[in-house]
Amino acid sequence: MKILVINAGSSSLKYQLIDMDDESVILKGLCERITFSGGVLTQKTFDDRKIVIKQDMPSHKEAMELVLKAMLDKENGALKSIDEISAVGHRVLHSGEDFHSSVVITDEVVKICEKNIELGPLHMPGNIACIKSCHEVMPNVPMVAVFDTTFHSTMPQKAFMYGIPYSVYEQYKVRKYGFHGTSHKFVSEEAIKLLGIKNSKIIVCHLGNGSSISAVKDGKCVDTSMGFTPLEGLVMGTRSGDIDPAAVEFIRERLGINAEDMVDYLNKKCGMYGISELSSDCRDLTIAAEKGNKKAQLALEMVAYRVKKYIGSYAAVLGGVDAIIFTGGIGEHSDLTRELVMENMEYLGVDLNKEKNLNYEEGVWELSTQKSKVKVLILPTNEELSIARETKELVG
């Protein structure tokens, strides 16, 4: 069974073709500059055959047509016929409160997604456009919407509500939704398999340019750090994370910008980039800190400090913790960040093996010692495989 996984943005389209018999990637590709001039598709197969097509893609329909052309290419593709594709799994940003799990896409599902565009105005139009375009060029192939938010839909109301009038929540659905759901779901499920215990308490730290943490009890999310938008929570690459709303208005007035520009400022000019005034890349900041750059060092310490605070609070929410999992670009590759986060966590039952932390290679990697009461693991995420598994489950 071959499943095509699609992750569409407003001007891009990432895709993978996965053989679900052994969960291997057959090929993967990326369409860039959709709706702009200078469009390009890059595709690579599992045996390193590569295709680069430079062609304008005025819409997602043309992008999907180009994807099919590349996959069917006689020399460097991997399919002889579109009929080999059993189903398509679409990553969709926002479920609102309408869906609590992945769903087979119907006209009604598309209408509900269109209603929820206001909850994700940057990503949802691209997601929906790609679903429609994909249906046009592959009308007989079943399709599934896998939402970035539904894993967090198991949060209790006391966790997802804000301290605002209840009528505002009821009318406008302003609440914590959480994001990175496919990653948190995949990593927590894999961790439960590794732990081999029925009742589990897991904290997943998805750390990258965008970062979030989730508290997962018995496989279900009970709290997460991102909120109504991905801006809430941790200090990230360019996002501020948690900040006093009154401070936001204070800064906005002093900068002389409007509310829309202020949200853009908090999303794109703050975080590690704003603190260091150098870079949003953890690798750049680590090198700069080693050379004595105090702002870079501060940015790294603030990132780790905020992660540490969330771990402590989620341990309290869970009533203890069996495992702390690091994933994502920073989570997997920044030994400094992991060490700063895990520093002085002995009270929680964590005993970090610093040598193993420094010498991570790849794959699943245990960072804790044998005497540690809490497992500390690096567990690479695989959001595309998570989407493919959800799709397979729904279409059989």
Report on the structure:
- Strands 5-4-3-2-1-6-8-7 form an 8-stranded mixed β-sheet, sandwiched between helices. A 6-stranded mixed β-sheet has the order 11-10-9-12-14-13, with helices on both faces.
- It has 15 helices and 14 strands.
- Helices cover 39% and strands 20% of the residues.
- The longest helix has 25 residues.
- By secondary structure, it is an alpha/beta fold.
- A hairpin with a 4-residue loop joins β2 and β3.
- The chain folds into 2 domains: 146 residues, ATPase, nucleotide binding domain (Nucleotidyltransferase, domain 5, 2-Layer Sandwich); 198 residues, ATPase, nucleotide binding domain (Nucleotidyltransferase, domain 5), CATH 3.30.420.40.
Number of helices: 15
**CATH level-1 class of the largest domain:** Alpha Beta
CATH architecture of the largest domain: 2-Layer Sandwich
In whole angstroms, the N-to-C terminal distance is: 9 Å
Mean pLDDT: 96
Tell me about the largest β-sheet.
Answer: 8 strands, mixed
Order of helices and strands: EEEEEHEEHHEHHHEEEHHHHHEHHHEEH
